[in-house]
Amino acid sequence: MSTYTQKKGFGATLWDYLTTVDHKKIAILYLIAGGIFFVLGGLEAMFIRIQLAVPNNDFVSAGLYNEILTMHGTTMIFLAAMPLVFAFMNAVVPLQIGARDVAFPFLNSLGFWLFFFGGVFLNLSWFLGGAPDAGWTSYASLSLASEGHGIDFYTLGLQISGAGTLIGGINFLVTIINMRTPGMTYMRMPLFTWSSFVVSALILFAFPPLTVGLFLMIFDRLFGANFFDVANGGNTIIWEHLFWIFGHPEVYILILPAFGIFSEIFATFSRKRLFGYSSMVFATVLIGFLGFMVWAHHMFTTGLGPIANAIFAVATMAIAVPTGIKIFNWLFTMWGGSISFTTPMLYAIAFIPSFVAGGVTGIMNAAASADYQFHDSYFVVAHFHYVIVGGVVLGLLAGTHFYWPKMFGTMLNEFLGKITFWLFLIGFHLTFFIQHFLGLMGMPRRIFTFLPGQGLETGNMISTVGAFFMAVAVVILLINVVITQVKNVQVGNDPWGDGRTLEWAIPSPPPFYNFKQLPLVRGLDAYWLEKMEGKKGMTPAEPIGDIHMPNSSFIPFMISFGLFVAAFGAMYRVDYSWGLPVLVIGMLITILSMAVRSVKDDHGFHIHKEDLMNDDDKGGKA
Amino acid sequence: MKRLAKWRLFSLFTIMTLILSGCGEPFLSTLRPAGEVAKTQYDLMLLSTAIMVGVIVVVTLIFLIVIFKFRRKDEKIPKQVEGSHTLEIIWTVIPIILLLILAVPTVTSTFKLADVSPMEELNENGERDVLVVNVRANLYWWEFEYPDQKIVTSQDLVVPTGERVYFNIKASDVKHSFWIPAVGGKMDTNTDGVNKFWLEFDQEAANEAGDLFYGKCAELCGPSHALMDFKVKALPRAEFDQWVTAMQDVEDPAKAETPLAQQGQEIFNNSCIGCHAVTPSNSAPEAARLAPNLSNFGERSRIAGILDYNEEELKNWLRDPEVYKPGNKMTGTYGQLSEEELDALAEYLMNLKVQD
Amino acid sequence: MAAEEKMTLETWPASPEKQTLEGKNKFLGFWLFLGGETVLFASLFATYLALKDKVPSAEHALAKDLFELPLVFVATMLLLTSSLTSVYAMYHMKNFNFKKMQLWLGITVLLGLAFLLLEIYEFNHYVHEFGHTFTSSAFGSAFYTLVGFHGGHVAFGLLWITTLMIRNSKRGLNLYNAPKFYVASLYWHFIDVVWVFIFTVVYLMGMVG
């Protein structure tokens, strides 16, 4: 990104990124946007921990605290973890399957801009009368009672960004099914691609219930409907079901890509193929499938009755089996291997005990009758942070270090990387381990303060100290990024030296068409196989020929922008007369942009054979 | 290595602190079970923890061997192993067995804790043999109605020990969750319908906890969610019966005795009685019971569920409830009270007692 | 074979919608999208069933008071027929008969339009005769949301097919627009299938009580 930027000037680069349909650039956009939201969500987390450091603290007020906790959860799940997952899916999956781009480059860009505008809309609530304050779960009775427009920012913002995610999911499904290079059979796909595949299917089936739930909430709050208004026949439990039918698979949507990243890292830095590849694939699919059968374990105390609770308890426990298979397969991938402790590998190694701890507390939560004690207490807070931070965030940090050279052509500093790692790991356990006990000692979740004399002081103080470790770790990571990009030392195809999959066979960053000639895949770990036979690169599967590429387009930006405008209209329609026209104008911008896209033929362009021949293998200009 | 050693020392310290702080307070902690429900849940916690620690030990063992034994020493390429069916069967079957061991008590206890059939059973007199309490959660306060005894109280739940007490629970505004950690797991109070469950309060544990268990709202319900506490007075059956009789005996609002209290009663009747009742046999419909019943306010353990029970705190609360419970429904419903009025009101309220 | 190339009956392939990679992607992607739409409608159906006849007081009309079978039956027939006519259109598309394809698509659009008008009449009837509105009860909200989402899909489908017909009226069929026509008709079938469920779950089951 760097050298090219300087040559091109800021305006041109900006326009390039606003209109790009290249999966590698979209990956960078996701990484930057997701990174910014991650820092925002982290700040909110720090406010939470400062407020809870001592009893009866008044660092933030009660109402503001609820806004912060809501935005922390919502931001981290929807605006940080999801886009960062998409960043790596975009950066890596097409390369791993030997494709020149995703199936729908235009939709890929649309997906990003929808997410981006949804996220911006949601966060503008801070400046426009207050953020949502009913928790990221936004249970219906509380969110209907919530005053101001906070909840409307939540529903409309998530609706827009959710649409982007759904589009992304479909895109990756089609990409993986249709765009694999010759020889790349399903059972030769790298595990990150497999997990992206399963995750995309989960997105496809999990997001529509959220869409419906959000619509119902929007209709209730802004258009006078009565879905959750008990006095008019409504029922708030519908929201809980719809939310968790989405919400539980969402957890797997986040964790499976992390599993995929770790699988690549374990194999790479142990110099060994993944142990039990086929059972890993099977376990991934099974986790995805079971993920849809267990949503009601979030509702054990709602009063669904013992039959439902018992069924969902047992179904939930079943998920432990495929997850356990994965853990042991990772351990045995390293067994007998030749382990090199690089930063990504450190994250991967630390992930195993951290995630096992999160997993076993998950099983404890699954025991319905015991969960009556755990539910909505800090035990649950500890559990899901062990899973999401100990699993997803460690995975994303590992992925950042591991794939940074492939995305930017430079290596993050290993020394700083290891400092980040140790600070983050120590801070993480310090923050969350103690929270298990706080919960068991009777501390409910989502409380803005606690009274002295309940035995909760020490634990909360320790937890807050831990949070600062994590904050420092993130700051060091950011410094590392800046230093690395300023130094700008370019690296070659396979900077880790042990790359196994196709992405390491091409330059870092890859040229914008990825593969000059599509590679022929002869087995699992395609690049490794060639290397072991002493070859330098992949055997091509086709002669050099013209490459068909899609055109850049500004339309995705406009479509998303229209919805962004319309969301303001829908929201302020209840207060001001200008709301309705704004809603109409916004929808018109979107629909007209779609019509332009539909009516204007876009055949893309061809890179001619001669130009390809002249292009030396120096690498691309991401 | 050094780093690892430090890390271990550190975790040792963490564990030490935990042991020192014990398992939490006897009136609040789920780790000090004070009744049949909490005990059942505690046993299940122990069982699941034992199984899970077993799993962790195995994983950690393999983990440690792996990261110490298989560090990169040379540039040799290790043997590429595809997998092992035997191993895979082992780590599929053993977890299934472990989960079955956990699943059986989970399912049986889930059904046991949901058994509320005695609530429906009537004896030959057409009465219930068991005690039933209707819990109604409101924005930041709790109402406890004893339908068979025809009395209502608030904030301090009074129950007999050594028997199963059955609860009908619901919310009147937004969703809350009814939780007495030391005595048993929680149940949500929905706005849509009534949930039922039971708890049992252990006498010995109650003594240890100072006869007063802490109750919490466990579901985010608004700004003062954290402050929506209540207390549970667990008494031997005989004392409980006395309390019930005393409550039932109050037919009219208690007459204030001192002149100051009489003045307070006048203020109360002008400004407060619209929402707060002072007779336990409150026959008003639920929707009209807008605020805690104060018949036995003089016997409460806390002011507003959170403040120490003394006159000063009561006056602080009355002066500006918003400071203590942001977003409560009482703020602004009565005019500014002068210091004299506060004194009088406090005097009156603190003397509202049903037992001597 | 470039997508925009001029085709003849002889060069026209058997499955023109899946001839190019773009077409193949579109075909698969759209099927997957319909999978997501199925879950969307399933959620709406579940909501409707949970809130059916849930009204604040006895004065409100219930499902059995509202629905009239003849009207709904006519609407159903219109939509089912339009699905059939879109099949004819795709038959002619595959045979490279652009004019006949346009004709049958035109008929499809007209039938869809008639369905939509009937639905508008129906809603209007419920609002004015029974006071059954979007805001009158949870039942009303759920009914209008479910049936209205379907109606919205119909309206979007009409707009889409019409746009396609106008855009391509001058240039005929090629491998670039064949997948577009194909997925539009797929969408139309999906709308039809959803309606069959609405007819059964909302109307027939509603009449039974």
TrEMBL record, chain B:
It comes from the Bacteria. Its EC number is 7.1.1.9. InterPro entries: CcO_II, CcO_II-like_C, Copper_CuA, Cupredoxin, Cyt_c-like_dom, Cyt_c-like_dom_sf, Cyt_c_oxidase_su2, Cyt_c_oxidase_su2_TM_dom. Keywords: Copper, Electron transport, Heme, Iron, Membrane, Metal-binding, Respiratory chain, Translocase, Transmembrane, Transmembrane helix, Transport. The chain crosses the membrane at residues 44-68, 89-108. Its cofactor is Cu cation. Its main location: membrane. The keyword Heme applies. It catalyses: 4 Fe(II)-[cytochrome c] + O2 + 8 H(+)(in) = 4 Fe(III)-[cytochrome c] + 2 H2O + 4 H(+)(out). Residues 128-246 form the Cytochrome oxidase subunit II copper A binding domain. Residues 259-353 form the Cytochrome c domain. It is a multi-pass membrane protein. Binds a copper A center. Residues 22-117 form the Cytochrome oxidase subunit II transmembrane region profile domain. It is found in: Cell membrane; Membrane. Subunits I and II form the functional core of the enzyme complex. Electrons originating in cytochrome c are transferred via heme a and Cu(A) to the binuclear center formed by heme a3 and Cu(B). Belongs to the cytochrome c oxidase subunit 2 family. This is Cytochrome c oxidase subunit 2. The gene is coxB.
From TrEMBL, chain C:
Residues 28-207 form the Heme-copper oxidase subunit III family profile domain. PROSITE patterns: COX3. The chain crosses the membrane at residues 28-51, 71-91, 103-121, 141-166, 186-206. It comes from the Bacteria. The keyword Transmembrane applies. The keyword Coiled coil does not apply. SUPFAM superfamilies: Cytochrome c oxidase subunit III-like (SSF81452). It holds the Pfam family COX3. It is a multi-pass membrane protein. It is found in: Cell membrane. Signal peptide: none annotated. Keywords: Cell membrane, Membrane, Transmembrane, Transmembrane helix. Belongs to the cytochrome c oxidase subunit 3 family. This is Cytochrome (Ubi)quinol oxidase subunit III. It comes from Robertmurraya mangrovi.
